[in-house]
Amino acid sequence: MIEIDDLTVKFGGVRGLSQLTASLAEPVTGLVGPNGAGKTTLINVLSGFVRPATGSVRVDGRDLNGIPIHKRAAFGIRRTFQNEQVVENLTASDNVAAVLDNVPGDGRPRRQSIEAALEFVGLSAERDTLGNDLNAYQRRMLEIARATVGRPRLVMMDEPGAGLAQHESEHLRNVIKRINGYCGAQVLLVDHDVDLISATCAATLVLDFGSAIACGPTQDVLADPKVRAAYLGVLEEVT
Ligand SMILES: Nc1ncnc2c1ncn2[C@@H]1O[C@H](COP(=O)(O)OP(=O)(O)O)[C@@H](O)[C@H]1O
Ligand SMILES: [Mg+2]
Predict the structure, then answer these.
(1) Is residue 189 within 8 Å of 28, Cβ to Cβ?
(2) pLDDT band at 84 (very low <50, low <70, confident <90, very high)
(3) Is the predicted pLDDT of residue 160 greater than 60, yes or no?
(4) Which pairs count as long-range contacts for 235-238, CB under 8 Å and 24+ apart, including other chains?
(5) Which residues on adjacent β-strands are paired with residue 142?
(6) Ligand 1 atom 20: the closest Cα is on which residue?
(7) Phi, psi (5° rounding) for residue 59?
(8) What is the pLDDT of residue 239?
(9) Is 110 helix (H, G, I), strand (E, B) or coil?
């Protein structure tokens, strides 16, 4: 459960977020909006990279203002990045192990948790491959393995579908649908692919200029005239 209350983020004179209030309870929630709307900024506030000027966010009832950035992953707030953060000179397996060094385990032997995370994203065969030798899609999947190992509460994904081929997107879609069942974490998904959002997210929050212009069941939100206007016709072909 994510409860966002009156959240404002300022970058000098620019507002990254403006008095944003929203409550996100679905296991998988979409976060959409035009470029510059504040999607990445919201993820950065949740993961602790950006401090809000005002307001608060609670995750599963805990006020994040009280949790310093280096303790957020251990608390269960995990993410993938727009540009993957895979460690080039570590194997896929060691990339996942490096995360487990910093977060609580799931009760199973460490080796088993790592294998399970790699299997979950379809990278068992690449366990001994160096990050450097993984292709873009495999790196994307490895980031998901890193974000889901241990006991995550909230997994945030920033445009995981960007630039993927059709069959890769389909696999990604299936993995996203299974995250909550696999590790119990709530998922917050940022993506421009409306098909991906529709297929995976029961609810969607739409940002424009740092504020919520719609929030609710995904199909209702995507049909909302305000949302369609904000996208300047981008949705016309899809719905
Ligand atoms: N570190 C930063 N410094 C200055 N301005 C920023 C910074 N990060 C984001 N912004 C600004 O905040 C607004 C929201 O950006 P962002 O959250 O990246 O949007 P989105 O992810 O929805 O495309 C934009 O106007 C952007 O230029
Ligand atoms: Mg962004």
Answers:
(1) yes
(2) confident
(3) yes
(4) 235/194, 238/194, 238/195, 238/198
(5) none
(6) 36
(7) -120, 125
(8) 46
(9) helix
Tokens found for residue 24 = 């996100």
**Residue 168 token pair:** 């890769």
Q: Does the beta carbon of 38 lie inside 6 Å of ligand 1?
A: yes
Residue 48 in tokens = 């602790």
In terms of Cα–Cα distance, which of 24, 101, 52, 67 is closest to 210? 52
Helices (H) and strands (E) in the chain, counts: 9, 10
On the CB side of 118, CA atoms within 13 Å amount to: 21
The predicted model scores a pTM of 0.94
Q: CA–CA separation, 235 vs 193, rounded Å?
A: 10
Beta-ladder partners of 154 = 77, 186
Cβ-count burial of 102 within 10 angstroms (0-12 exposed, 13-18 middle, 19+ buried)?
exposed
Ligand 1: residue of 41, 45, 51 to mutate (most ligand atoms within 8 A of CB) is 41
